[in-house]
Amino acid sequence: MAEIGIKDLLEAGVHFGHQTRRWNPRMARFIHGEHSGIHVIDLLQTVELLAQAQAFVSDIAQRGGTVLFVGTKRQAQDSVREAAESSRMPYVNQRWSPGLLTNFQTSSKRIKTLNDLERLDAEGQLDLLPSQERITRRKELAKLQINLGGVKDLRRAPDAVFVIDVNSEKIAVEEATKLRIPVIALVDTNVNPDGVDFPVPGNDDSIRACAAIAHAIGDAAAGGAAAWWEAEEARRTRETAEKEQRQAEEAANREAEQARRLEAEEQSAAAAAGQEAAANEAAAAAAEQAAADEAAAAPTTDTPAPAAE
Asked: Which of 40, 71, 127, 152 could make an S-S bridge to 164, C-beta 3.0–4.6 Å?
């Protein structure tokens, strides 16, 4: 996990807050001071809180969980997409669809429709439809890609939500809070951080600042996900080896059992043959004895010669 220090944050302009007249008093604990009417954010706290957020995100990813990246304001769109894609996480960077989380069953159906339409388009099936239906389907596909393109692989509610600008993503934060999904957020001096589980104080209006924080969170997610994929691959390799070993043992047992069965059959056949031979010998002996007995019991046919006178 890449560490980000105060120098990196300074270079990205993360310390610049809003004008002092536009501040939210609940951000007071994160403000170092003010300069030329602009609040200056305490980057010592930013570094510490960012590290905590990274550790939390990394832990989620290491367990195979998902973090939903959200940033629809122009300054955050590209960095949110890049950070999410680099860590294979879902994201929303165009428009938040109300009910995406709180009505996830309906969202899942729309996501399935998006995946089906993209598959049909890739296979050239949409081109075979009648003209009007083809136009309608392509418009539907374009709309779904804008609203749900970044979450098309989302199969269940995320384990955490990372947000840039709590004010701009108010609905997303509210939905996550309602479902008790932890929220990580880049919070500027004009927002209320109370509903955020892992606030990271910093400038949310600068492209460079948004990119610095988004990529820091993305790197943590990517590192955790890599560890999970490595562990998952090791588990699959182990299970495959165990399965092959079980199959080999079962095959050996079957061969041994077959060999024992063949040996038993051979022994049984030999015993039967022996018994049959013995019976035949006994029968032959009995027949010979019977013949002898019959010959001995038969009357003689020789008569003595008459005496001479």
From this structure: 71
**Ordered per-residue pLDDT tens for the chain, 309 residues:** 667 889 999 999 999 999 999 999 999 999 999 999 999 999 999 999 999 999 999 999 999 999 999 999 999 999 999 999 999 999 999 999 999 999 999 999 999 999 999 999 999 998 888 999 999 999 999 999 999 999 999 999 999 999 999 999 999 999 999 999 999 999 999 999 998 999 999 999 999 999 999 999 999 999 998 876 666 666 676 777 778 888 888 888 888 888 888 888 888 888 888 888 887 887 777 777 777 777 777 665 555 555 554
165 and 199 Cβ atoms separated by less than 8 Å: no
CA angle, 121 then 138 then 73, to 5°: 105
pTM of the model: 0.74
Q: Which residues contact 150 (CB under 8 A, 6 or more apart)?
A: 69, 81, 84, 90, 91, 92, 93, 94
CB-hemisphere CA count at 13 Å for 196? 24
